[in-house]
Amino acid sequence: MQRDTPDNANPTILNVSQLPSRAQKRSTARVGSDSKYDSVVLSSPYWSDASSDDGQEAREEAADDALDEQEIYDLISTVSDPEHPHTLGELNVVRLPDIHLTPPRDNPRGLANVLVELTPTINHCSLATVIGLAVRVRLEQALPPNYRIDIRMKEGSHAQDDQVNKQLADKERVAAALENDTLGGVVDNMLKTCVL
Amino acid sequence: MPPIITPIPPFQPDLYQRAWASIPHPSLPLIATPHATSVTIFSLATLSKHSVLTGGHARSVRTAAWQPGMSAGRLRLVTGSFDATAGLWSYNSDKDKKGLEKEVKFGEGEGDEEEEEEDWEFNLVLEGHENEVKSIAFSPTGQYLATSSRDKSVWIWEDVGDGAGPGEEDDGGEWETVAVLNEHEGDVKAVAWCPDVEGRVGMSGRYSSDVLASASYDNTVRIWREDSDGEWVCVAVLEGHEATVWGLQWEPRPREGRFPRLLTFSADKTVRIWTLKVEEAEEEEGMTNNPWGGIPNTMRTELKEEWECTDVFPRVHSRDVYSATWSKDTGMVASAGSDGIIALYAEDATPKEDVDMESATNAAAPATSRWKVLAAVEDGHGPYEINHITWCKRFDPGTERKGEEEMLVTTGDDGVVRPWQVRIP
């Protein structure tokens, strides 16, 4: 995985102030990184709450607890690029409008779906699979188990879309890839910049 | 009234990590569950741990298979691992053959951990695959072992032990590679041998009776047979699934001596049935001509089998179907997968001929299904994915028909192995 010249030597870098964030929308004081994910990390997952069967109340509660696209973005935009000293957010590989969240229908404890479309920095980015893997791992670790995660390359952004998408959707391949020391190490390094 | 699927308390202890599958022993009340680099064997009689296999693999154990036809009092399990090897393990009960049965059924001999682990011996490593081993299956007699891998190949191994017969030797026997099948274009996710049923041999005298099927990441299923030269050849490619075929099972009890059908399930969210097409003309030809009459290998293209997709089950699943199981006793099929749903299906009993006309218009897939959904349970493992489902006999105190009543056993990402009672009113 180590190489002398990166695939894309001069990627476009977004300034931190250009990244989408909750703080801008609400114009409140900046949330410190220490407490930024408390709502995700510390809240008791509603799927495990056996007593939440009383209809309306439970549903409202679940709606409060439910994640939105911005929170998903915050979780994955801080993942580092495998070859540049920048995050996937700064490189615009992860984009807020390309995060699609389908909350649980009917039953608040039912399945939710997160679809993330990634835009690799150049057309032939050989590291697309690794980036996808890191994003998938990050979400699997951070989200409650009723979230099903789909990672895809944004249409037209990558030469081997189908192969990459198929690999990233294959649970068995993902599990085996993470047991590969080299690949697992690269992913671990990419996730070091994530606050948790 | 529809059948009722109700949970039975899960096997103890919980494994607290992803478990990939649970494989019942062909006759004894035991079930083997691979998780991380170990396999936990549960007793179906006590619904608790019988023994554990550890220390044989460097990476996750993905699959396991019990060797059939072992002598009484002995067990052999073969494990397939992400470390690209298959391992042969033997369990020698120091008690007599009745002792093992007793031990399994009544939980005797469940001493301290160390003693248990000594009971399983890691005999032999089968090396050859380049990447993760994904599936393992014994042929009905136990003569052949098939392994499949991400390296796109299927290997067939033969137990060529020293004439002692399978299971007589303590060292795991001696295994030779009989064939390496390289035609798939992607990971081979699963292999399955056709069961030894009436009708299996009758189909074609030009091949030996063993039939192997393989399912792949390349969206196809392939059928393999051994020709009269001892060469294993692909006789059919089953195309129709639109995504990875996660696995397959042969019909355990075909009707009226027909050739067994194939059940397949896929990341395309469907469950399908495939049937071997029997051409009358072909049969006649086979009787009058010797197909081997001096024709070189390359000319034997006409010896392909024609399989067609004869059913697509009513859609229940919203995501990958990782597993499905076909009951020998009732003919019912159950499926499970990423969406956590457990679905139960039964086949319509009306004669098949009535539907044949319909399906003839669409070669890819029949328009209507002969299978009905009898029941569907949501959140079978809470919010977690279900990796495996299998029919299995009940031996626990909760059944009045020990060794006869069938239950379902599901295995999930939550590390829970859960039995389900199935009642058909």
Describe the protein in words:
- The complex is a heterodimer of chains A (196) and B (425).
- Chain A has 196 residues and is of the alpha+beta class.
- Chain A has a domain of 125 residues: GMP Synthetase, Chain A, domain 3.
- Chain A contains 8 helices and 3 strands.
- In chain A, helix 5 links the parallel strand 2 and strand 3.
- In chain A, helix 5 packs across helix 8.
- About 10% of the residues of chain A have low confidence.
- In chain B, a hairpin with a 5-residue loop joins strand 2 and strand 3.
- About 9% of the residues of chain B have low confidence.
- In chain B, the strands form 7 sheets. Chain B has a 4-stranded antiparallel beta sheet, with no helix packed on it. Chain B has a 4-stranded antiparallel beta sheet with strand order 2-3-4-5. A 4-stranded antiparallel beta sheet of chain B has the order 6-7-8-9.
- At the A-B interface, helix 7 of A face loops of B.
Task: Give a quick rundown of the structure.
With 196 residues, chain A is an alpha+beta fold. Chain A has helices at residues 22-26, 38-41, 55-65, 69-76, 128-142, 161-169, 171-179, 181-191; strands spanning 99-102, 112-118, 147-153. A three-stranded mixed sheet of chain A has the order 1-2-3.
End-to-end separation of chain B: 6 Å
What name is given to the CATH topology of chain B? Methylamine Dehydrogenase, Chain H
Cross-sheet strand order for the largest sheet of chain B = 1-29-28-27
By CATH, the architecture of chain B is named 7 Propeller
Tell me the number of structural domains of chain B: 1
Strand content of chain B: 35-45%
Structure annotation, total helices of chain B: 4
Give the termini distance of chain A in whole angstroms. Answer: 26 Å
Question: Low-confidence parts of chain B lasting 5 or more residues at pLDDT below 50?
Answer: 109-117, 281-301, 354-362
- The number of distinct β-strands of chain B equals 29
Which word captures the global form of chain B? globular
Helix/strand/pairing category of chain B: mainly beta
Percent strand of chain A equals: 5-15%
Region (Disordered) (chain A): 1-37, 45-64
Protein name (chain A): MIP18 family-like domain-containing protein
Family (chain A): Belongs to the MIP18 family.
Keywords (chain A): Chromosome partition
